[in-house]
Protein: DNA-binding response regulator
Amino acid sequence: MIRIIVADDHPIVRGGLAGMLAAFDDIEVVAEAPDGLEAVRLAAEHAPDLVLMDLRMPGLDGAAATERILAEAADAGRATRVLVLTTYETDDHIIGAIEAGASGYLLKAAPQDEIVAGVRAVAAGETVLAPSIAAKLVARVRTGAAPAASDSPALSPRELEVLRLVADGRSNPAIAAELFIGEATVKTHLQHVFEKLDVSDRTRAVTRAMELGLL
Structure:
């Protein structure tokens, strides 16, 4: 059973998404949030597998809420993931959500089957991007417009810090002690690094980062 929180400031949209998802036997909607702050609170209360997150919400936007939810989940040893579902597909929105740690980015105009498949994939640990979003990211990298070095994925300052310590041969507990963060948070940062660099282990992450000039 995939336990989900739906976060969207439009009541009709939020209710529609919750009703649609609840119709599937393997999905349980445990809560609905009308804004980012409530999404953070409910995520801490219910410890969901996934938060379906809108971006433009009052109080605390979706990207900021995503970052807080994932950080708190990591510190608590939970495996909550975030799938962005929004109408916005500008470069700033896309990069902001991905840098915050979202594992997927879909558009509300997507067919129901695509949204449900995205929920299941992200809950299973995969990364999901709408075709138009993937195309924008590829174009951004090819034109050298990415926030990081040309032709390089955009790693956050903290992700780079963790990766540098990995390159120095530090273990996860040692990295956690060095940066004064939880070991679960280190693992979350590394997971995001692996996803962004398209690698599956620490060694390849370091070598790939060196190839790209990130280290």
About this structure: Residues 145-150 have pLDDT under 50 and may be disordered. The first strand starts at residue 2 and ends at 7. The radius of gyration is 17 Å. The first helix runs from residue 11 to 22.
